[in-house]
Amino acid sequence: MRRLFYRTNWQIKADKVRLIGEDGKQIGTLSLIEARELARQKGLDLVEIAQKANPPVVKIVNYAKFKYQLAKKEKETRKGSKKGERLKEIRLTPFIGRADLETRINRAKKFSKKGDRLKVVVKFLGRQITQKDFGFRLLDQVRESLKEFYLSEREPKFSGRQLIMFLTPVKIKNKKNGPKDQKTENPQVGSQPV
Predict the structure, then answer these.
(1) Mean pLDDT for each consecutive 10-residue tract of the chain (194 residues)?
(2) Which CATH architecture has domain 9-78?
(3) What distance in Å separates the CA atoms of residue 95 and residue 23, rounded to the nearest whole number?
(4) What predicted TM-score, i.e. pTM, was given to this entire model?
């Protein structure tokens, strides 16, 4: 999640900081007082961009311009995702019951009708992590059940104790009513004697 608040100038509370200049090049590790003085001489602000680093990383920038660039970058990332497209998630365990699995698959089918992407997560609890092949088999079963509704984006991947698979909805085209295979009789023509 994007960090909304950046400490600036006198809000920074570290003794030593790693300073980055306005050109993006690293100046080095300085005391906070020296870094503030350099920023003041240039008429710019000192912004803490990595608070948890040791020492914290600060950058000499125009704070208004810095905020503008962050907003612009976020707008571009939002523009990249399709309008109305959401990511829905269903969670499973490797030894889930048949009825529970069917319920989640039916829920996923509803998500596909709305055009939502799907994230399928298999969470391994305790010693279940030793049976990873059950998770892969379960995801294959889910993929097979949803093949009319979803396409797999990439192969399932482990993230910690979770096996994750992403699916994209299949675009269903509306077909216009074309000629039917069966012959249809015109009731008026068939009922008149010759």
Answers:
(1) 69 87 86 88 87 86 86 72 72 91 91 87 89 90 90 86 89 50 44 46
(2) Roll (3.10)
(3) 55
(4) 0.47
Cβ count near 53 (within 10 Å) = 13
List the one residue out of 170, 173, 171, 135 whose CA is nearest residue 155.
135
Q: Is 100 left (phi over 0), alpha (psi -120 to 50) or beta?
A: alpha
Angle at 72 between CA 70 and CA 74, to 5 degrees: 70
Contact 19, 38 (CB under 8 A): yes
Structure-derived torsion over alpha carbons of residues 169, 121, 80, 155, reported in degrees to the nearest 10:
-70
As a whole number of angstroms, the distance between CA 155 and CA 136 comes to 10
Give 87-169's CATH code, choosing from 3.30.530.20, 1.20.1560.10, 3.30.110.10, 3.40.50.300. Answer: 3.30.110.10
Neighbouring CB atoms inside 10 A of 51's CB total 15
The first and second tokens of residue 103, run together, are 């319920």
Assign residue 43 a region (left: φ > 0; alpha: ψ between -120 and 50; beta: otherwise).
Answer: left
